[in-house]
Amino acid sequence: MARRRQLYEGKAKVLFEGPEPGTLVQYFKDDATSGNGTKKGVITGKGVLNNRISEYLMTRLGEIGVPTHFIRRLNMREQLIREVEMIPLEVVVRNVAAGSLSQRLGLQEGTRLPRSIIEYYYKSEGLNRPMVSEEHITCFGWAATQDLDDMVALTLRINDFLSGLFLGTGIALIDLKLEFGRLYENDELRIVLADEISPDNCRLWDARTGEKMDKDRFRRDLGKVEEGYQEVARRLGILPEAGVRDMKGPEVMQ
Ligand code: TMP
């Protein structure tokens, strides 16, 4: 394989220059961190599963007209994506109280919210992901009001669609984190879904038993972390054919 230029290395992914201008290769690692990097570990096979799960969910979203950065999966750990200008926000949408919302407001985890809530967090190295308001976002120029309107409309559609998709497999979508980018096409600006959608950035509970199948198993030392990710892939019908025996996949080439 030819040597490629690495552009960025994050906690769970690496971005390489793509084969054509305007494209990138997104490589999924097994590394896991939480608590803003204070807890580090490896979830064997996570990169392979997240690559598949994100491919599957972004493809389904593309089919209902949600614009995404996803082009195609290249191999077990890599996918080809469109290069976008990332908006430095994490958009969290919540259907059921859990995690930081429960902590902040003293809500029992598992309490269904009267309606879905959207929150914004500012992505910046060293700032520990502060929650910010629309006022902060437009005042500091992280996104324009029109960008935000587009992000909210897309977020609500994505949340509704994925809630139904997951429920069809017996999984409750408790909350999820999305990231968006700007894509310039023929002098037109479009807001597109970027990053990934996987058990790293969604809370997914068994709809009947409430069993957690997401990264909270790692964050909270609940054990059976790999099994949680595998179960999500299995229920979506996309567990790699080699099953759980060959989840290591190729190593990153630099
Ligand atoms: P929170 O309850 O900890 O704020 O998390 C809300 C959602 O965002 C949950 O699905 C996990 C996801 N998330 C990330 O994707 N990255 C992060 O750094 C954090 C803290 C949460």
Describe this structure in words.
With 254 residues, the chain is an alpha+beta fold. The protein folds into 2 domains: 6-82, Phosphorylase Kinase, domain 1, CATH 3.30.200.20; 87-225, 2-Layer Sandwich (D-amino Acid Aminotransferase, Chain A, domain 1). Helix content is 28%, strand content 32%. It is built from 6 helices and 14 strands. The chain has helices at residues 46-63, 99-105, 134-139, 145-167, 216-219, 225-236; strands spanning 6-9, 13-17, 23-28, 31-34, 39-42, 70-73, 78-82, 85-86, 89-96, 112-122, 131-132, 171-185, 188-194, 202-206. The longest helix has 23 residues, at 145-167. The N and C termini lie close together (10 Å). The protein binds thymidine-5'-phosphate. The site of thymidine-5'-phosphate has 12 residues, from helix 2, strand 12 and strand 14.
List keywords for this structure.
6 helices, binds thymidine-5'-phosphate, 254 residues, five-stranded antiparallel sheet, Phosphorylase Kinase, domain 1, D-amino Acid Aminotransferase, Chain A, domain 1, 14 strands, single chain
What is the compact description of this entry?
The protein is of the alpha+beta class and 254 residues long. It has helices at 46-63, 99-105, 134-139, 145-167, 216-219, 225-236, and strands spanning 6-9, 13-17, 23-28, 31-34, 39-42, 70-73, 78-82, 85-86, 89-96, 112-122, 131-132, 171-185, 188-194, 202-206.
